[in-house]
């Protein structure tokens, strides 16, 4: 990665970290404030439970007093709306409030005439166990020396407040993820349109000089009577190669047409063209299955192989070897194409980054070769990745394509 790309990459990473820290700070502040509110309301509700218990005790133990005072005590007790249970010193349930109004823990109430209450002691025991798990009991001593215990649950509002920040943050996170995905998709779509426009314009601009070069070649052959001249034949192959390149650019953005081809033959034909334009110190070898077929678009697939071979050649500083091994994975109905070189290797930390647009280790590189390669492999409904690499020893890229051959298990 050159200096400018490294700066841009680090700058993007720094912004991502800052945005993540800012989001984490907002989440922490929200949770902290909500926790503060929950604690304050929890104290308030415990006070309510204590007041309810004391008012209930007063009603049960108060001597004959003014009716107005009794009405006041009842009003205070009934205004405190939280689920609560009072048990005696033996753990028996003697009073409760804000539980299921259709159930009772007193059998006589259910047996009384015209009673719509259901005697359900199991329900009350479950509620009591639940309250014991939520809060420590409030001790309520009586004048008789006996001590009652008051258990209670948090109100519905308090329970909802406990959950609210997590629900709120989850919804915000989902919204941000959706928004990021949508905007990222729009951004990529706009970038793709720019690249497609540039590619088609490049193809258009290349068309005229390529046609002229083909014409000049024919004139040279006629003028110098050199129909079978090897140099002119190689020049013609290069001009035709330019036609292929221009055709590639003109097809960017279009859905490529795929047809059945023998993978070995396609790769062999391109390597024969490529190796005569490479240093003689670099040798090429194609091994593996020679018959397996896959659906390919020849111009695009040649481009894939060309980019990988160019990277392999650039990785080899002087002498070296490039090996292409074709493997038919019958069980998975896939074809593995391993392209190995004896070059300088790739650090493991860059295995994924090398496929990102703009990533390059060369001073004059654009960093688009492997990014385009990955996209063209995607067009073939395949995969590409760094299978293995060791610094100073070389790298192996693996392409995975769907095989046209279908494995039929033997019928027993």
TrEMBL record:
PROSITE patterns reported in the protein's UniProt record: HIS_KIN (PS50109)
Cross-referenced Pfam families: HATPase_c
GO MF terms, alphabetically ordered: kinase activity
EC numbers on record: 2.7.13.3
InterPro entries: HATPase_C_sf, HATPase_dom, His_kinase_dom, HisK_dim/P_dom, Sig_transdc_His_kin-like_C
UniProt keyword annotation of Cytoplasm present: no
Record-given protein name: histidine kinase
SMART domains: HATPase_c
Superkingdom per UniProt: Bacteria
Membrane-spanning ranges: 17-38, 163-183
Top-level EC class: transferase
Span of domain Histidine kinase: 201-405
UniProt keywords, alphabetically: ATP-binding, Kinase, Membrane, Nucleotide-binding, Phosphoprotein, Transferase, Transmembrane, Transmembrane helix, Two-component regulatory system
Catalytically driven reaction(s): ATP + protein L-histidine = ADP + protein N-phospho-L-histidine
The species this protein was found in: Sphingobacterium chuzhouense
